[in-house]
Amino acid sequence: MPELETFALKGNLLYTREPSRLECFPDHYLVCENGCVAGIFPCLPDRYAHVAVEDCGSRLIVPGLTDLHLHAPQYAFRGLGMDLELLDWLDSHTFPEESRYADPVYAERAYRLFVRDLQMSTTTRACIFATIHADATLLLMQLLEETGLVAMVGKVNMDMNSPESYCETTDGSLAETERWIRESLCRYKNVSPILTPRFAPVCSGRLMASLGRLQQKYALPLQSHLSESPGEVAWVKSLFPDCGCYGDVYDRFGLFGSNGPVVMAHCVYSGREERELIRKRGVFIAHCPQSNVNLSSGIAPAKSCLQDGLKVGLGSDIAGGFSLSGFRGISDAIQMSKMHWRLQDPDIKPLSFSEAFYLATKGGGAFFGKVGSFETDYEFDALVLDDAAWPSPSELEPESRLEQLVYLGDDRCIRKKYVKGRKIVG
Amino acid sequence: MPELETFALKGNLLYTREPSRLECFPDHYLVCENGCVAGIFPCLPDRYAHVAVEDCGSRLIVPGLTDLHLHAPQYAFRGLGMDLELLDWLDSHTFPEESRYADPVYAERAYRLFVRDLQMSTTTRACIFATIHADATLLLMQLLEETGLVAMVGKVNMDMNSPESYCETTDGSLAETERWIRESLCRYKNVSPILTPRFAPVCSGRLMASLGRLQQKYALPLQSHLSESPGEVAWVKSLFPDCGCYGDVYDRFGLFGSNGPVVMAHCVYSGREERELIRKRGVFIAHCPQSNVNLSSGIAPAKSCLQDGLKVGLGSDIAGGFSLSGFRGISDAIQMSKMHWRLQDPDIKPLSFSEAFYLATKGGGAFFGKVGSFETDYEFDALVLDDAAWPSPSELEPESRLEQLVYLGDDRCIRKKYVKGRKIVG
């Protein structure tokens, strides 16, 4: 592989080293060396005197955003059926649509639309659910690889409590999963497999136990859903009456961090015991505020998770969420934390802007390693943002411009996008 | 005035005659005669055989949206200071910014940016707060008149409990208000004055009583704020301990519908007594879900107001809300009604899509007369919408396309906009 070029971006740099503070370096240089951040400088040091400089003028430069949870095959029906709750919505919209991905022609047509939009979005890294179909999942991985985005993609497992037309046998699920792992494990530069039991109610004990062994055997990460809605939590309790909490179900089968890194979506109804297990096992939480509202699930107490030192990032949860935009994720997280404070717990303050920005960048990025910050040695994922579409009648500081951009901006604002030091948009 | 041309739009027509049902006429003709809807037809009747037809192909055509509550001078700082609650945010952002509109140069620069964006938005009719400055208010009215939008615009009144730099004397406020009314009352075709006491805590009894008399004298509508946040409600209670409820304060001074049409923003904390008074006086409620979340005010029970037969529309409440988009208002109203159902009152179901669409069109439009529907004789306000930016891998019905457009769309979708039969965009 040719060595990556060393270069610098010049502009208004903003990032969050820690949740409590948005750091701002106006009109500074951000140097990229070997795909990583080499430093931030007011003037270029001598050793970088001859590197290429991309002058971004007054634009804002922020770390790329990580989407810790989304379902690629649901992208086609985002913003539809939003009047339904989780379990009804799965039956009426999700399962019928996902079953169509058995057809490779449909899968390619639909996945191309998804991948095109993800490439142009705020996202530089993502954890993605595909469907139960190994071949369509491999196709999705190939399309993602071509974008330059970094993604973990999972063939979904589900062998019970599912519609006849969209269900696997236990043995079939395991055989196809291992085939998919072998075909994808070393095939791509930026895209890799992640084990994906859909959620406990649709996975038999034997399936889950075997997936735990596969996780260890292939050293894979794993993603699933946890404590999303009242109906789902009650269902899990009735299926696994011996388990102390929902997370304990996964833990008993080795799917809760004991065999490798794990990210769980939602955690709206994680109680004290479950949160303690989440902390102990180092499980990441994908906080998906928009989806939790759309499906009337509730509000996850993201602020208190952050205060307790749990690992939290944001997920769009397409198509429980309808928007791929990480900006929207940030503002949704803030808004829902305000409603949580006002309506549920006056002792837990709302998320501040910097805290929510942290969740979207370094918080979720940590699932991918040193990602989501402009600290030295972090992988160089960056967005160059343009807010010229809404001129202000008076001058604003970069911090204020970023807040406004997060609330008002859309894909039009993204002028350049870098992943691991490589420009993939602009 | 020249007679308005009779013409027809052809496309997929959608509107809500009543809240419970979205009516859809795919590939139909919508005829406009004398600025009003003359009818919907599958084929053009003979009497319209020779009128001009604007063929909108597969695009969606919906009634224009009404924004029942927004503050034009706050547009400059929308999406800023969103970490604050109402009363702090008024002191730190709102009053300092509004006081700048004493300067006509600044006012023109800022209002031009606002008016340009309002023209391109989903809004065809709006109730707008200006500032305390009569001249800047007249300037705003002039700029709005040039767009072709229909707007009611109010010079704000506030004579106590306000910062020294942004407050009026009672006599000064009344004199300037009457001057502004006289100068604006018959000056514009589409823009008219609306009395605008800011809210009870910043208006003396003498000011409010005099405004009630002005309302009667000039047959004007009136707008203000009501029961928005816990701190504000407690403040009003302490200032007017004799009043049964917040609405009763306005009512005692003749500002609650006894002297003419009234629209009150928010009503998050309107109890049984206040709602009864709202119904009795025929007061309109401007439901502003985004603002109520941003300022951590709470969630107004819009669904139960609708069920009780109260008059309800939607307001962006710029800059408590950050978005001018009425699409966003619809989805915010649905989302917040879901949280209200889940977290506050399981007996009040969430707003359905058609109910929220009704609020944004016919619900708020009613404050302007026969507005916000494609029923015969309604004023011809229409949006032609393009959803081609997000192709679906399979074909969708117009109703589904509209739901998706409301969740995913932005100003780019608005291809044509008609107000009172006149094309003002496209």
Automatic annotation (TrEMBL), chains A, B:
- Write down what this protein is called: Amidohydrolase family protein
Instruction: List UniProt keywords, sorted A-Z.
Output: Hydrolase, Metal-binding, Zinc
| SUPFAM superfamilies from the UniProt entry | Composite domain of metallo-dependent hydrolases, Metallo-dependent hydrolases
Names of the cofactor(s): Zn(2+)
Q: Which InterPro entries match?
A: Amidohydro-rel, Metal-dep_hydrolase_composite, Metal_Hydrolase, Metallo-dep_hydrolases
Which domain of life, per UniProt? Bacteria
Which organism is this protein's natural source? Oxalobacter aliiformigenes
Report domain Amidohydrolase-related positions. 61-422
Q: Does the keyword Metal-binding apply?
A: yes
User: In the UniProt record, does the keyword Hydrolase occur?
Assistant: yes
Which lineage?
A: Bacteria, Pseudomonadati, Pseudomonadota, Betaproteobacteria, Burkholderiales
Matching Gene3D superfamilies: Metal-dependent hydrolases, Urease, subunit C, domain 1
